[in-house]
Amino acid sequence: MKLPCRVLxxxxxxxxxxxxxxxxxxxxxxxxxxxxxxxxxDGRHHALADFAAAKVLVVVFxxxxxxxxxxxxxxxxxxxxxxQPRGVALVAISPNDPKSVRLDELGWTDLSDSFEEMKLRAAxxxxxxxxxYDGDTEAAxxxxxxxxxxxVFVFDAARKLRYVGAIDDSERPxxxxxxxxxxxxxxxxxxxxxxxxxTKVVGCSVKWAGKADAVKAYLDKxxxxxxxxxxxxxxxxxxxRKNGSGRFRLVNFWATWCAPCVAEFGxxxxxxxxxxxxxxxxxxxxxxxPDEEAQVLAFLxxxxxxxxxxxxxxxxxxxxxxxxxxxxxxxxxxxxxxSPEGRVVYRQLGGIDALAMRRVIVQALNERKPW
Length: 371
Fold this sequence. Notes:
The chain is α/β, with parallel strands linked by helices and 371 residues long. It folds into two domains: 24-211, Glutaredoxin (3-Layer(aba) Sandwich); 225-368, Glutaredoxin (3-Layer(aba) Sandwich). It is 36% helix and 19% strand. The strands form four sheets. Strands 10-13-12-11-14-15 form a six-stranded mixed β-sheet, with helices on both faces. Strands 5-4-3-7-8 form a five-stranded mixed β-sheet. Strands 1-2 form a two-stranded antiparallel ribbon. The longest helix is centred in the N-terminal third of the chain and has 21 residues, at 2-22. It starts with a helix and ends with a helix.
C-alpha cells in the first residue's frame, strides 16, 4: 500500500505544480512596466512607448465574456473621460486565449474573446480607450501576470508600478464604497502615495493557453448527448406558447426544406449551449409532415441538437400554427423568445441576426437575475 500512496502524493504534487505554472507571477510593486506591442481594435498596433507622454498609465486586463469585466465597462469609460484631461492614459488588454474558453463559460455574454469579437464589443459599447488583443501568444499578459479580469496595473511617470488590483470594491456600482483606482490616480497626480497600493482581484480567471484539449473534450461530451424528437399536437403547442417552465423559452419553427432555416439552425444549437445552465431553454419545432420524421431526426442528430425538439403531429398545419400564435402568417423560419410568464420578448419572422438574438437573451436574463 505504501508505494501507491507515495505515487499518489507525487502525482498530486506534480498536478499542483503544473497548475501553478499556468499562472505567471503578478508584477510586484515598484517594477517597471513591461513592454508590449499589440494589435488594437482600431486597426493600429499599440506599444508601451506610445503612452510616453502620459503622467500616469493605467493598464487594465479585461475581456469580452466575463460578467465582472462587463460590469466595469462604463466605469472605465468614465475614468478615461475624467482623467484623460489630467494626463492619464488608459489601455485595455485582453489576455485570454479564445481557444481556451468553453461555451458554458459564455452564459453571461453575447460575445467570446476572439479579436474579431473584441472589435464588435468595442464598437457596440463605444470604448474610448485602446482595446488590445494578446490572445495568440499571451506574452505581454504573462509579463504582467493578471490573475483575473478585470485586473488593474497603475504606473507613475517613471513607469514604476504604484498600484495593482481591483478598480473598486464591488462590481455592482450601487455597492461601491472604496474606489481604489480613482484614489490611486488622484494620489499620483498630486505626487502622493496611493492610500491603498494592492488589493485582491475578484473576477473571471484568465484563460491561459493550453486548455484547447479540455474544450474539445467538453464539445465531445456535448456531441454525445442524445437527440430526440417528439410529436406536437395543438395542446402541446399551446402549452409551449403559455410557457410554464419558469425559464425564458426560445422557440424556433423551421423545416428541412427551408434553406434559411437549415443555414441558421447551428446558431440556435450554440445559443442553447451557451445559456442552458441559466434560466433558459431552446425548443425547436419542425413544421414538416409527420411522415418526414426520420428525415427531421437525421438532421437534428447531425446538428447535435440535444435540446427539446418537436415535429408537427398532423398535416393540419394551420390549426397547429394557430395553437401557438394566431398572428403567425405561416412562413418559416419563425422565432419567438418568451419570458417565464409567457410574454413575448422577441419575435422574428424570417432569419435571425444571431448576435442581436444573443444580446436580447443576455439582457433579458440579466434583468431578471443578475449573476
